[in-house]
Write a structure and sequence with these properties.
Layout: E1 23-26, E2 29-32, E3 50-53, E4 56-59, H1 60-67, E5 126-129, E6 132-135, E7 154-155, E8 162-163, H2 165-172, H3 180-183, E9 229-232, E10 235-238, E11 257-258, E12 264-265, H4 267-274, H5 295-301, E13 332-335, E14 338-341, E15 360-361, E16 367-368, H6 370-377, E17 427-430, E18 433-436, E19 455-456, E20 462-463, H7 465-472, H8 480-483
Antiparallel strand pairs: 1-2, 3-4, 5-6, 7-8, 9-10, 11-12, 13-14, 15-16, 17-18, 19-20
Length: 489
């Protein structure tokens, strides 16, 4: 069987076979690397400046000169006011714009195709308007043929065509003085040209359409429709009625204030009428007010009722621990599983108002600020601040156990040294045991301990490092104080 060489694509410019090592692709054709240049100026091309026309290659400048739009205003692409006759093209294409015959379009059934040409519309060229699909080329203004998009497309009142915004205003917009180009300022030739004015808009005062009792606008009583609806305090208002009761300033959701008389006010008028009055409240309530209104009259006019919730007693053990009154959600403060009134949630000693950061639960089932808690239940002795008793050995100078009331837990959960319950505000942890801060000291020298000098001993006690080394450390020559070199002990 004779040898048959493999067929390779031919270069459109020289007609020779193109191999993979030297091919360049453009317009569905393969070229040699040496043939991949402009057909007019001979400039070598690449993917960024290549323009293909009927299997011929051009750079972008030459393609614009040969096939681009011609005439005034097209600059370098067509030679602005150029005297070039196009002799170098050896044809007449420079003198006239080549117009291609449009390809025939397959017609769609009635009412299913493009509204302008009637052809099938495919997804790649689909434009939507009036609930119909248009070709991208047909999506133009019916008057000036300007290309449209979703921003400037206007559907005409003829319910068939689409227009740009300018043509829509000229054809369907308002006419007369003051409407400029949209309606023809001082226009007087509309009837001569066969045009008519836009129909006059009938203004209906919706306040005259009365609503059922209690369902209309609170100000005028008229029916409120969705186009003019404004909501305030669950009531529906006309947009034109949604104004301040006193100064008639137009309101919105930011500056509107609902008054106790079920009307709406701006912030300034609300402050003047319902806000606090007297010296220091400035214009909101009449700075140095001299309008003859006494303080008693102002207090009587304020729609505020102060209810002392402490008089509402709760069942035994369920109310506020300090006053015994019922605690409601609006004033609830939590501490150690008990609910307190916000005004009762203060230090038992200095009566300082507390919050979740400052509050400390004491062993006496009261709450204290940090300073008072430290004075009453904190460690005592030299270096502890509020109680600087001149102790020289780090021991507490006050017997805390005499102040602690209650029974010791029997399950071993108390402090290993004193046996009483350990609360969160004074808890110190070592070897899975919980200690009071005042009990957290060396068992031998009673030095106060922390996480840096704590040592847990085998006997269940805690020691400082020096005492631990002396009692449980390695012994012998070379271990210093830990083993007592030449120790006489």
């Amino acid at each position: 069987m004779p040898f048959k060489p493999a067929e390779n694509p031919k270069c459109p410019k020289c007609g020779k076979s193109v191999y993979a090592a030297e091919e360049r692709v453009a317009g569905g054709h393969k070229y040699h690397k040496g043939c991949f240049k402009c057909g007019m100026c001979g400039k070598f091309l690449d993917s960024t400046n290549c323009a293909e026309h009927e299997a011929e290659l051009y750079c972008k400048n030459c393609h614009g000169r040969k096939y681009g739009p011609k005439g005034y205003g097209f600059g370098g692409g067509a030679g602005c006011l150029s005297m070039d006759q196009g002799d170098q093209f050896k044809n007449q294409e420079a003198e006239e714009v080549v117009r291609r015959e449009p390809k025939p379009i397959a017609q769609a059934p009635e009412g299913e195709g493009c509204p302008r040409c009637g052809g099938y519309v495919y997804m790649a060229e689909q434009m939507l308007a009036r609930g119909r699909s248009w070709h991208r080329e047909c999506f133009k203004c019916n008057e000036c043929n300007k290309r449209l998009d979703s921003r400037n497309c206007c559907e005409g009142s003829d319910k068939k065509e689409i227009y740009c915004k300018v043509c829509y205003q000229k054809k369907w917009g308002l006419k007369g003085y003051g409407y400029g180009q949209g309606g023809g300022a001082l226009q007087s030739d509309d009837y001569a040209n066969g045009e008519t004015h836009a129909p006059k808009t009938t203004v209906v005062d919706t306040a005259t359409i009365k609503a059922p009792e209690g369902q209309g606008c609170p100000r005028c009583g008229g029916a409120v429709f969705a186009a003019e609806l404004v909501l305030a305090k669950g009531r529906e208002w006309h947009r034109k009625c949604f104004k301040c009761r006193d100064c008639t300033k137009t309101l919105d959701s930011i500056i509107a204030c609902d008054g106790p008389d079920r009307d709406v006010y701006c912030r300034t008028c609300y402050g003047k009428k319902w806000g606090p009055h007297g010296y220091g409240f400035a214009c909101g309530s009449g700075f140095l007010q001299t309008d003859g209104t006494s303080e008693e009259e102002l207090s009587a006019a304020r729609p505020f009722v102060a209810i002392d919730t402490t008089v509402i007693k709760a069942p035994e053990g369920q109310g506020c621990p300090r006053c015994g009154g019922a605690v409601f959600a609006a004033e609830q403060m939590l501490a150690k599983g008990t609910m307190w009134h916000k005004k009762c949630f203060n230090c038992h000693e200095c009566h300082r108002p507390l919050d979740s950061v400052l509050a400390c639960d004491g062993p006496d089932r009261e709450i204290h600020c940090r300073a008072c808690y430290a004075k009453l239940f904190g460690p005592k002795g030299f270096g502890y601040g509020h109680t600087p008793v001149l102790s020289t050995n780090g021991e507490s100078t006050i017997n805390f156990e005499s102040k602690i009331t209650g029974s010791k837990p029997t399950d071993g959960s108390g402090c290993p040294r004193c046996g009483y319950v350990v609360y969160e505000a004074e808890k110190m942890i070592s070897k899975n045991k919980q200690w009071h801060k005042r009990c957290f000291n060396c068992s031998d020298c009673h030095r106060s301990l922390d996480s840096t000098n704590l040592c847990d001993a085998p006997n269940g006690e805690i020691y400082c490092r020096i005492c631990y080394g002396r009692l449980f450390g390695t012994r012998g020559v070379g271990f210093g104080m830990g083993a007592g070199v030449l120790s006489m002990i």
